[in-house]
Amino acid sequence: MKTKKPDIKIFVSHRIDLDSETIDNPLYVNVRCGAVFDKRENVDMLGDNTGDNISEKRESFSELTVMYWAWKNVEADYYGLFHYRRYFSFSGEKPKEVNVAGLYCEKYLSNKSINKYQLNNIEIMTNMISQYDGIYMEPVDVQKVLTPKGYKKNVKDHFISYDVFIEAKYIDLALEYIKEKYPKIYPYAINYLNKPKHIGYNVFILKKELFFEYCTFLFDILNHNEKKTLIDSEYYCPLQYRSPAFLAELLNGIYATYLMEKQYKIKSLPLIFFNNTEKQIIHKHSYPNNIPIVIRINDYYAPYFAVLLQSIIDNAYEKNNYDIIVLEHTVTKENKRIISEILQGKNNISVRYFNPEYLLEDVILPFKTELDS
Known about the structure:
Strand content: 15-25%
Shape: elongated
Number of strands: 15
Mean pLDDT: 91
Strand order of the largest sheet: 3-2-1-4-10-7-11
Order of helices and strands: EEEHHEEEHHEEHHHEEHHHEEEHEHE
Distance between the termini: 58 Å
Low-confidence stretches: none
Radius of gyration: 23 Å
Number of helices: 12
């Protein structure tokens, strides 16, 4: 008799200000984080603002609003949490490049990288996940990661070195509550914070009963800290306001340590950070009398492009439509905004941006271009 395959749902948190690539795999449930603030029209992706939700806490809880929504509104045998740019490598392969945070880095979330890390292989993923109680990232040795205050020997010191993210008293407040409310986990919390191996980023896959237990533990502590914190969040900078999400990274490692010490069957996989996940799609325009114009620039040449654009505007024939496609990967949002202002009221002229780099990953050019800089 065939064993029934478990219902696995890995919730992938997506930003509402970035149209990111998604992976064609039914195991992934793509969800907009903070969807209550999404003003875009005709968005098909699920939002975290239905049913029982905390979508309005996006600025402080980050991807945890998606986790909470999954906990309260969706049934599954396994629950996972990934981000639009952080996925496990289910092939076990690792990129050679490591970023300043000690994470394995891949340039693009492209078909090539998706296949390389088996991110769309339902059979491999299902067989692997169903063998374990939980899956976490391979730990990062914080002793090898430089902080603003030098190298640190343990996870707690490493975190509080980034005091713009989270202050020591915020962590201590959580520890006091864990000692009082979750005494069986408290020794593992102290053990984890005093060791150098960090399991963070709020990325994991857990069996239902463990996921529910973890959610109860996590959100109880975050809500307690939110009520008891002595810091007036009115004066927080954006990063300080995200202290609950940074604290959750520590709680993620604490709970993982607890499960491992309790002899649950836990697997570690490489966590891949994808530097660029923005969708690169050029839709075909069906304008009558369409004149396509393709130009390649970087941010340095943006002002020169603005001059060219003004020249096109001044000399354009009103019965023609000018479709300008800009090949780039470094033009800032501010320069794009300035360029869009130049186009105001010019309904027969459009500018669209496209980053061709991921299409050229395997192409060896005989010369260096500004797209390489």
